[in-house]
Amino acid sequence: MKNEMDKHKNVLLNSMRACVENGLRLHQDAELLSTDRSPTVVALCILAQEEFAKAFLLQLVREGIIPWSAKVRDSLHNHSLKQLIGFIMEWLRPSDDEW
Predict the structure, then answer these.
(1) 3-state secondary structure of 98
(2) Distance, CA of 77 to CA of 19 (rounded, Å)
(3) In the prediction, which pLDDT does 1 show?
(4) 35-60 pLDDT tens trace
(5) Fewest CB within a 10 Å sphere: which of 16, 18, 36, 51?
(6) Which residues of the chain fall short of a pLDDT of 70?
(7) Can you tell me the distance from the alpha carbon of 76 to that of 61, in angstroms, rounded to the nearest whole number?
(8) 3-state secondary structure (DSSP) of residue 34
């Protein structure tokens, strides 16, 4: 059982890493185009935010804070839910004064 849990946690960790890498790449692409101020830049930023939100959600599952379920899996493909998670992440972020 423990071996199966470790395997599941490793899969989640690898998925989280992929999400963060994708988010960073999308953000870097947006920065390269930032002087353009086009809707494409905004779209890239939104997609980057969604990738970071997926990584955050997977971390919550990995830590056992929320259980893995079909609804969690489906939320990884739902743009509105990933954007909501992004807002929650922003709200949870401490201010610079707290650091």
Answers:
(1) helix
(2) 13
(3) 66
(4) 877 899 999 999 999 999 999 999 99
(5) 36
(6) 1, 95-99
(7) 12
(8) coil
Q: What six digits make up the tokens of 60? A: 């919550």
For residues 22 and 49, what is the distance between their CA atoms, to the nearest angstrom? 10
Alpha helices by DSSP H, the chain: 2-32, 39-62, 70-75, 79-92
**47, 26 contact by CB (below 8 A):** yes
Q: Contact 22/49 with Cβ under 8 angstroms? A: no
Q: How far apart are CA 15 and CA 73, in angstroms?
A: 12
In the DSSP assignment, the letter for residue 38 is -
The pTM for the full model equals 0.85
Cβ-based burial of 89 (10 A; exposed 0-12, middle 13-18, buried ≥19): middle
User: How many beta carbons lie within 10 A of that of residue 58, not counting itself?
Assistant: 23
CB-CB contact of 58 with 19 (8 Å): yes
- Say if CB 56 and CB 23 are below 8 A apart: no
